[in-house]
Amino acid sequence: MTNTIRELDQRIRLAPSSTQAESTPLLDRAELARLGTRRVARLSHPGQWIAAALVLVLVLNFAQTLFTNPSWEWAKVPTWLFSPAILTGLQLTLLATAISAVVSFVGGIVVALARMSANPVLSTVSWFYVWVFRSLPLILVLLFLFNLGNLYPAIGIGIPFGPQLQVGTYTLLTPLALGVIGLSLSEIAYSSEVVRAGLLSVDQGQHEAAKALGIPRRRQFTRIVLPQALRSIVPSYVNQIVGLIKASSLLFYVSLLDLFGVAQNLGSTYPTDVIPLLVVATIWYLVLTSVISVIQFYIERFYARGVFRVLPLTPFQKVRRAIASAFTNDRSVA
Amino acid sequence: MSIAVQTRTAVEIHNAVKAYGDKPVLRGIDLEVAPGTVTVIIGPSGSGKSTLLRAINHLEKLDEGFVVVGGELIGVRAHRGRIRELKEKDILRQRSRIGFVFQNFNLFPHLTILENITEAPISLGTAPAAAKELARSLLASVGLDDKEHAYPRQLSGGQQQRVAIARALAFDPEVILFDEPTSALDPELVGEVLAVIRSLTGNGRTLIVVTHEIRFAREVGDHVIFIDDGVIVEQGTPDAVLDHPHHLRTQNFLSKVL
Questions:
Q1: Does pTM top 0.90 for this prediction?
Q2: Residue A219: what are its φ and ψ, rounded to 5°?
Q3: pLDDT digits (tens, 9 = 90+) for A219-239
Q4: Among B51, B107, B110, which would you mutate to test the A interface (most chain A Cβ atoms within 10 Å of its Cβ)?
């Protein structure tokens, strides 16, 4: 009788609170101490498992059609993938994108600085520029440029109402040049906003410290402000470049044969090969974007200097560490 | 283009007036700071003490009045009956000779500790090798010579502020301004920064320190200034201002912070 009372007494003291004690079965101290040495069981999420299974079934179903549906005509893909015509188109896509990317990055910085300048003429003009080119569809800009010769048969520069230096529009501007200009004009409008957001993200204290140290103005920008702004500019700007690669396919409509244009043209010449040609274009666009993503990773890592106490690992480093830990069986390495 | 002014003071402020929009911040402050002394500015938040300090190296532009440091008008010149602003380039050159230490350190996070210190000298024409050598000796003087390759965020707040002080010393300034140098620090890190500031006193340098550290003011201050609502309410020796204040506003403020 006394024994059971003591036991009861012990059980009551172990209960965390009176309300919980009603719902939780009571344990004696010895039993609890034994459980305390075992790993805590985590809550399982059955809903997540079901969702994952459903998604997996759908993906596998689609994957199966890639092999079973003969219309994909995979056999033709490798020949088209490296055919000279496709490679020429790829080259044009790369060239137009690369030039436009560089031009619009530099242009974006200039427009962003003008927009943020205290000079009302500069800030208004750059605001107006961004407003116009963000409003217009790229295809409209390109078509306008290709009709530039009709609008202005000769272009030049000079003192307003004074002497002018003039050149024939089409002798100066080849179709590729017009295409690149069109892409850049619209891209600068977007990238200037990306740059502006990046510059605004730099702490005011950084400007003040640079001023207080007497660092010359240009160097304040190139050494102190811009490198810090680039950390937030790079991800958005790479996103812009990816968009630019795809936007360059619109050059097809102004009779420039880029990757998409060549695939489209070949499709009308070889109607039976339309699907494999589209697959080829898809593969190349995927490759281009993947390459850019890898470059992006390393650029971001470079501009993360000083942000993290320890730099994040590169994928290669992660793989190497995983292999090392698998061999040594040492979890602390991973 | 600056104009030399006959002076025996390190820093002179004449009729400093400044408003942010409609709100007056400085309402006519006159101040003379003797060379080689430590002046401590105290006052409630929003009293204008930081604005006054920042006006000394022209980070804040005064609406009226002027500042003279080492006999040179700062940020302005007298020309054709008006005080006119100098060109940015000339102001930057003047600033490089006045040290400034910020409340939030404002180290450049993307540069190493060494680069933080060498950046200004190199950008103003010092040879990189000489700048590095100077930076290393400055780091040693604040006890951080082992951190030159670290980035600011890898350091504690106290260490960052010591680097910021080393950075402010790069041009061997006669005058160093401190804007609440310990306010952003954890209490246990305040001491190491105050020790570094203390080590700068007594060798001819003029320090002006805005701070809430009353004990520090009493210990190293030669002159204490109490500012409230944009005017100097009371000034004198630490003993006079901190221990025997005459004005009710000073007494009220001290009763809150002591």
A1: no
A2: -70, -30
A3: 999 999 999 999 999 999 999
A4: B110
